[in-house]
Amino acid sequence: MNIRLDKFLADMSVGTRTEVKKIIKAGRIQVNNKVVRDSSIKINTENDQVLFDNTPVLYIEYEYYMLNKPAGIITAVSDLKESTVLNLISSVRKDLFPVGRLDRDTVGLLLITNNGELAHRLLSPKKHVDKKYYVELDASLTQEMCQKLREGVSIEKNVITAPAKLEILDAPDCKRVVLTIQEGRFHQVKRMFLAVERKVVFLKRMEFGPLKLDENLKYGEYRRLNEKELKLLEEYIKDTDMEELCTRELCTREL
Ligand code: URA
């Protein structure tokens, strides 16, 4: 990747964009063993060597955070009036964003990154990425309701949800369940239960694709994804790519 020297340094927390411009002017930056004073020169992040006061600065292209979203915070990059999930992350990166959306009152796993390609893949309906939610309801589910939820319910005109997994945690009470869906329609979980006349009173996302919420994270806390999770994500994306390819092939053959 080729990026401007000042962005390279600001992304790597050497300083704000204004500060790094001053640092560059002061001759404290070397690129491939030559002092440079022009902030706009392009750096090849893979091949160029950048030194700040003779110390190498390595470029990390993507950042990945797992946030345990608290209630009362909106899932947005910025908002004029309200605090957003990004206000909880202290990173100098300006290009971070949440992957997908949880409602203001929903808590739990939210992935935050600046990797647009990965986000696009995880959110694409074609990829069938599992989203697992812990749900508490205002009243018990009957067997019939459970069956409907598993098979698909109508949440709006001409929209029937795809088959879902439903696990009852507190039989015979049936008010605490785990629902796994592959779609991600607006307020989908709440609307699925409303379709069987039940109201969601607590909603927590436990899993997103291969990622599981780290139970050590309290509400509002976050951490970087670890190597194992990054590997899992990479493999998961490869698998879903393959699955999509096979489905496409099948569809073309059937036409
Ligand atoms: N479904 C909902 O209804 N709300 C969420 O926040 C996530 C999924």
Q: From the helix content, strand content and strand pairing, which structural class follows?
A: alpha+beta
Strand content: 25-35%
Bound compounds? uracil
Helix content: 25-40%
Give a count of the beta strands, DSSP E runs of length 2 or more. Answer: 17
The gross shape turns out to be elongated
Radius of gyration: 23 Å
In the predicted model, the low-confidence regions spanning at least 5 consecutive residues are none
Total helical elements: 6
Could you tell me how far the N terminus lies from the C terminus, measured between alpha carbons in angstroms? 40 Å
Task: Note the main sheet.
Answer: 9 strands, mixed
Q: Summarize model confidence as the mean pLDDT.
A: 94
The SSE order reads EHHEEEEEEEEHEHEEEEHEEEH
Structure commentary:
The structure is a single chain. This protein has 255 residues and is an alpha+beta fold. Helices cover 27% and strands 26% of the residues. The chain has six helices and 17 strands. The protein has helices spanning 5-11, 17-25, 116-123, 143-151, 188-194, 227-254; strands at residues 2-4, 29-31, 34-35, 42-44, 50-52, 55-56, 64-69, 97-98, 107-113, 131-137, 154-156, 159-160, 165-168, 176-181, 200-208, 211-212, 222-224. Strands 7, 8, 9, 10, 13, 14, 15, 16 and 17 form a nine-stranded mixed sheet that branches. Strands 3-2-5-6 form a four-stranded antiparallel sheet, with no helix packed on it. Strand 11 and strand 12 (159-160) form a beta hairpin. Helix 1 (5-11) packs across helix 2 (17-25). The longest helix has 28 residues, at 227-254. The radius of gyration is 23 Å and the shape is elongated. The site of uracil has 8 residues, from helix 5.
